[in-house]
Write a structure and sequence with these properties.
alpha/beta; Arc Repressor Mutant, subunit A; Rossmann fold; 2 domains; seven-stranded parallel beta sheet; 15 helices; globular
């Protein structure tokens, strides 16, 4: 039997479009509240007149409230947004995408966040979903290791705080620093996530990229050795996945190394390991911190990456030998499935639609 929204699409397609639009309004206000009508219309790329009508309706239903600075969600609005998001996810085929990718990638769990809206909004939603997942799945004791990067910085920034205390949990950086913006460094992210989880943290005062001799000497420092020892006992790892060339630039690799990465057709990167489209490691940058082989002994490894531009990188870097969970968005999932189909990686992929 057809699902109700499929029948609705046939009988009253305009209603479905209206629901998507009002869902987008609630979602955008939730992330950027308080939000004025003009800025909201600009973010949604909708006529201001249309947005005004929807705001008035949502306000009359008690889902939005007007302040001097713009619209904000009420408690009823937040609850409805949460419940409606589950329906929207199913309508957009997220569960279908999860089945396809779970079978192809071989992971225990794949979570796909609805990817409607602009890139910033998609990133915010992905980050919030990861934060909520951590609150739900992380226990009161143990060691959580986290890496750096834009996606995990978003997780640290948007995680709900004050839910409970976890004094027996320690959060540590999984790698040294790249020498970039502080908010993107693993140390900063570890401290912020620890604060959100009500946990303790320890920092790794070490640059990720140095000469082998320098790195060997730094590892003998007591403070560094202590954190590296904790890394060996990590229970959970949360890490991002980067595009190979973008990460090579962030690491400020010299031109000759950039050329090696290009020549070997690296497309994805994690932990300083560069992968080609077949998932083979084709280059490694010397660094201190989590190694690829360490992932096999960690109880739960969670990979996070979103956006269609990351599709090839995710396929290359994710492997059931190393990761257990992938959290991504529907745009990235769609791009991954398209690539799988085009390259014949998964012959019966269409059977899963």
């Amino acid at each position: 039997m057809a699902r109700w929204w499929e029948l609705q699409e046939i009988i009253v397609p305009d209603l479905q479009e209206q629901m998507f639009r009002r869902y987008d309004i609630l979602r955008t206000v939730y992330h950027f509240q308080p939000l004025g009508r003009r800025l909201l219309a600009r973010r949604l790329d909708c006529p201001e007149r249309e947005v005004r009508g929807d705001l008035e309706f949502l306000g009359s239903q008690g889902l939005l409230a007007n302040t001097g600075s713009g619209a904000v969600l009420t408690c009823e609005g937040e609850e409805l947004l949460h419940n409606l998001g589950k329906i929207i996810a199913r309508m957009e085929g997220a569960r279908s995408q999860e089945k396809i990718l779970k079978r192809y990638l071989g992971l225990e769990e794949i979570i796909i966040v609805p990817g409607r809206g602009d890139r910033v909004l998609r990133g915010e939603e992905l980050a919030r979903r990861v934060g909520n997942y951590l609150h739900k799945e992380i226990g009161d004791r143990g060691i959580l290791a986290v890496t750096g990067g834009t996606t995990l910085a978003g997780v640290a920034r948007t995680m709900p705080r004050g839910r409970k205390k976890r004094p027996g949990l320690t959060v540590i950086p999984g790698r040294g620093g790249l020498g970039e913006s502080m908010e993107l460094e693993a140390n900063t992210i570890a401290a912020e996530i620890a604060s959100a989880l009500g946990a303790r943290y320890q920092l790794l005062y070490l640059p990720e990229s140095s000469s082998p001799r320098t790195l060997a000497a730094l590892q003998e420092e007591p403070a560094v050795a202590e954190v590296l020892g904790l890394l060996k006992r990590a229970d959970v790892l949360l890490h991002g996945i980067g595009e190979a060339r973008a990460m090579a630039r962030r690491r400020k690799l010299p031109p000759e190394e950039m050329e090696v990465i290009r020549r070997r057709k690296a497309v994805g990167e994690a932990f300083g390991y560069y992968f080609n489209s077949h998932g083979r490691v084709v280059y490694i940058t010397p660094s201190v911190g989590m190694k690829l082989e360490d992932l096999q002994r960690i109880e739960k490894v969670i990979a996070v990456a979103g956006g269609p531009e990351k599709a090839e990188a995710i396929i290359s870097a994710v492997n059931p030998r190393y990761q257990d969970v992938l959290i991504t968005d529907s745009d990235a999932a769609a791009a991954m499935i398209k690539k799988i189909e085009e390259e014949g990686m998964f012959d019966d992929v269409k059977d899963w639609y």
